[in-house]
Amino acid sequence: MKLFVSGLINIETYLRIRSFPVTYYPVDYPFFGIKSTVSGVGYNIGSAARTLGDEVRFASIVGKDAESKRIYEALDEAGVSRKYIFDAVDTTPVSVVLYESGERGRRQMYCDLKNVQDQTLDPAAVMPAIADAELCALCNINFNRALLPIVKAAGKRIATDVHAINNIRDEFNKDFMKYADILFLSDEDITVSPREFITALKNEYDSEIIVMGMGDEGAILYERKTDKIAYRKAAGLGGVLNTVGAGDALFAAFLHYYGKYGAVDALDRAQVFAALKIQHDGGSIGFSSEEQVERVYNSIYNV
Fold first, then answer.
1. Distance between CA atoms of 298 and 27, rounded to whole angstroms?
2. H/E segment holding residue 221
3. Which among 43, 52, 48, 39 has a CA at the least distance from the CA of 12?
4. Residue partners of 256: CB distance under 8 A and separation at least 6
5. What is the mean pLDDT of residues 185-189?
6. Taking the model in full, what pTM does it have?
């Protein structure tokens, strides 16, 4: 599949902690528990899709600083074109993630977007990649907002993940939900049942697919062509090391498999992909190939 991905790329630092809530220490020594990598939602999605075999065109905004050089080196090493990466700000976004190891896999993220939220991607500059794409994954970041009607007018399908919301008319995300053909979100902030929240979303917006990720409890899928809501259990492979990037992995894998299978089979495979990913430490690593996913999928579902 030819996929256009536009979203955040940043430098992310991970700190393994003993547990939440964090107990105060004047100093701690988490040996090999701190590391810094190139990450960000857009980069994670693009990396996951490429590992599964998709042809990805990636767009983002970085700063005119030393951190951007590190990002360019990572893109070059991965064989990702810089054509749609624009140094439109002075300082590259950064984030810090505190995480627990173990099956609970809880994490807390601090994301400093600098002034990237004040930027807009020039539609003309990225239109060649959009025109060539079979699907456009537009992450919910301000610099993509102006692209939404343009991508839709070009006849392209839009996929987006609005992450943790608790209001179907969320002010920041409502444009993304309005234009999304494939809409993903998390259950982390909802105050009603997942089924009730998805029902409200499908009544408010026209998305053909809505998926709500629920961590180790699985996911809920709504498919408009059948007008049915289905619960799918998590793959439950164990060995959880770090859950950062699990949602990005689920999203990217679903987009990949949805082009090959029905929505339910695509979600089941995507959950296997995400379960394999969280056995690794870092948001942008641990992505499996199609062959690896199929082996695990077949063992779980006795195919």
1. 47
2. strand 219-223
3. 39
4. 1, 49, 52, 53, 54, 270
5. 96
6. 0.95
